């Protein structure tokens, strides 16, 4: 079967006409464009560049005339705009100065609050409850010890610690 198939394809290839293939052309002259080429139309527009160039002359003269001072010696339109924005910059200067003063005052207040002396009293509502297991209620008579000297000891210890911290902070600041 395969021998018949290959023979049939060879015959079909030979029977196909080879003259139907067209040649590829690389330039436009072979397509007949030369005969139909026309000149540019007579109503071609000038373009945007021409109008920009022509419009620049009166625009420059207008800008020059409004930038010059008046006959009275006062500023023209452009001078008034510049004066207006310079006044605006003075307002901004005063606003910025007020804001800077407010920020500096806030910084001073912050340092004042951070460096204020602390309350050295430690409020122990029930000192016995802190040193004993259990609360001060339902304690039989004679089982509760007077802990005032213990509270005073730890209060003094706390004051000494705070004094040591203050000395260390002063030494670091210096």
Automatic annotation (TrEMBL):
* Compositional bias segments (type: Basic and acidic residues): 31-40
Q: Kindly list any coiled-coil regions of this protein.
A: none
Q: Which InterPro entries match?
A: Nuo17.8
Q: Biased composition, Basic residues: where in the chain? A: 11-30
Tell me the superkingdom of the source: Eukaryota
Annotated Gene Ontology cellular components are: mitochondrion
Q: What is this protein called?
A: NADH-ubiquinone oxidoreductase 17.8 kDa subunit
């Amino acid at each position: 079967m395969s021998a018949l198939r290959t023979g049939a394809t060879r015959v079909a290839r030979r029977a196909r006409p080879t003259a139907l293939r067209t040649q590829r052309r690389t330039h436009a002259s072979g397509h007949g464009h030369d005969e139909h080429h026309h000149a540019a139309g007579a109503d071609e527009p000038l373009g945007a560049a021409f109008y920009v160039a022509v419009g620049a002359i009166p625009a420059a003269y207008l800008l020059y005339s409004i930038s010059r001072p008046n006959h009275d010696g006062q500023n023209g339109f452009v001078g008034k705009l510049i004066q207006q924005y310079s006044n605006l910059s003075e307002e901004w200067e005063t606003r910025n100065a007020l804001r800077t003063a407010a920020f500096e005052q806030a910084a001073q207040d912050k340092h004042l609050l951070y460096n204020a002396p602390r309350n050295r009293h430690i409020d122990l509502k029930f000192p016995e409850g802190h040193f004993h297991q259990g609360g001060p209620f339902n304690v039989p008579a004679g089982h509760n010890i007077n802990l005032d000297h213990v509270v005073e000891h730890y209060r003094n210890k706390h004051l000494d610690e705070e004094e040591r911290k203050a000395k260390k902070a002063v030494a670091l600041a210096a």
